[in-house]
Amino acid sequence: MPVPGSPIEAFLSALLLQAGYNAGLVAIGASLLGIAAGAGGTFLFLRKRALLSDAIAHATLPGVGIAFLVMVAFGLDGRSLVGLLAGSALSAGLGLLCVEWITRHTRLAEDTAIGAVLSVFFGFGIVLLTVIQTLSQGRQAGLEGFLLGSTAGMLYQDAVVIALGGVLAVLALVALRRPMTLVSFDPGFAAALGLNTRRIDLAMMLLVLAVTVAGLKIVGLVLVVALLIVPPVAARLWSERTDHVVLIAGAIGGLSGYVGAAMSAAAPGLPTGPIIVLVAFSLFLVSLLLAPARGVLAAALRHRRFQLRLHRRQGLLSLARGEPIFDPLTLKVLRREGLIRPDRVPTEAGRLEATRALLDERRFEVARRIHRDDPLSHRYDGLTPIAAVMTGDEIAEIDRLLADAAARHRREDA
Amino acid sequence: MGADFVQLSLTPILIGVLAAIACALPGNFLILRRQALIGDAISHVVLPGIVVAFLVTGSLASLPMLLGAAGASLIAVLLIETIRRLGRIEPGAAMGVVFTAMFAGGVLLLEQSDTSGVHLDVEHALMGNLESLIWFDATGWSSLLDPVALASLPPELPRIALVAALITVLMLVFWRPLKLSTFDEGFAATLGLPVRLIGLALVAASAVAAVAAFDAVGSIIVIAMFICPPATARLMTERLEHQVAWSTGFAALSAVLGYVLAGYGPLWLGSAHAVSAAGMIATVSGLMLAAACLAAPHRRRIGQPSA
Q: ipTM of this model?
């Protein structure tokens, strides 16, 4: 049992939504947001425009500043989250339009447009923040929280707004998943089907924008892009099917948001955004290591199996030709399968297998000679048995040629 | 333009100009190679490097900072390459994964460790502190000839000057191979040029520029100067030589204009407080790019209708 009052106990209670109403609400909001970001980011990632979300995220800052200034000028509370988020959505939309316009109407490439919009909007946002700092001398505007995210002291209605944003984004995703999948794989085909690809692209961007804006308060604008990129990349390692990738990315995003928010509730001094991002990154590392087809472990196992097959085959051929074997791995493989005795003399089974391997090799030699232009005979890699490539009739034909050659050989010898 | 100017504004302006130029020079090649966002990635990755260097050495001396930042950039490049190869993931997304995770790690380390005694925090890393790089001992223009006063120049100035000079020299020495491999990598490779090495060296030079500039002016300027002045210059001309020259001019101009607007602009508007110089420099460079996008002579793609 964890000691009461320890960080672990605080973490567990936050994980089980026992750490107080607000912390629970934040955790739910963060996980909904993570689901929406992971699933929505998948389409952006498949469209190979993942870093566009970085421009969108950084472009929110001037909007936050302007919204604050406008609300203060009208005598409202400058910290109203809805107002700030509305402002940030407007300026992020403007940034998005700038990227699109620069890429379409000038010779600059999309990455240049992204970088330019990102840095300039962010720089202007910083200017506005310093203006606000001088205006509100004495009372903190708290806008710096938007840079790295802060959930400490979050208001109840703020958490509701974020959770609502997450729900809406998930609903939009469910509604739009089919056209978005089509456009991310084959825009030409989608256009031929009569879909308006520009409009669907725009909807995709608006979805990303909505997720970004909803995530500002929790993750912060510098890192919200991680929620849109890391889960899809991790999910991509697990599956080759879009619908699965979307679901897995949503799950990874949601889990990161939930666990990250719980950890940050246990350690209130730490900014929430980096914790959530690091949780997502650890899930990515696990995926990179363990994913079934594309993972590092799977690749290493595949390589090892290939190596063993190669050594077995080459060892058998050496046995058949009566050549000595020196390679320790080859010896180990043959010995383990009982094909040779400890003193390196082939066993009965070993001699049989060796003869088979040699026959296969000879058949392939003939096959490559007679089917010179046939792609099948190029499947020869020294490992695939010929029976896997050719039909029984073809092999019989090859054997006849082999027998003829052997007979000719004997006649010449005689 | 008297003693106040030399004491308070001369060194920040010089540092800003040199940092802008040091970043804009490699930026010219990065945008042509479609690697514009490398500047963005490097400036994020530098943070954990600097924090780790600080935690290890306990000081903000420049050499460990530089080494830490360089080490972090190297690790980031290796990680991006590994993820790209192992996971067969497109480079942009691999980059996004690595730099956000490393930046998040840096922020957490920074918040966890006790840096209250020194000037190291996330906002400083983002915004820089150009305004604070003043020349205490200067009494007027004559101080430029006074060795005692010169000794108290902020150390960032000689450092960034050295880096800017180094980058310029490297670019001039390797001009032809750099140009060739940027425009036609296949042809450069058939000539026997080590194209991969050239690409890597360009990224390394960008990292050095980013680290040195980051130290003085924060990461916003670094990203903005890598991209905006070269992109603006790209729209002005069809020749690389001219593009580099234009970009140097734009970089210097945005640093000077940005600093002056940030420092004196609010005074003209009747406010007593200056705004962030780093942010203003980025804003000015963006306005220049916007103007170029609307009116520069070579803004369109070749063959693109003018309508």
A: 0.91
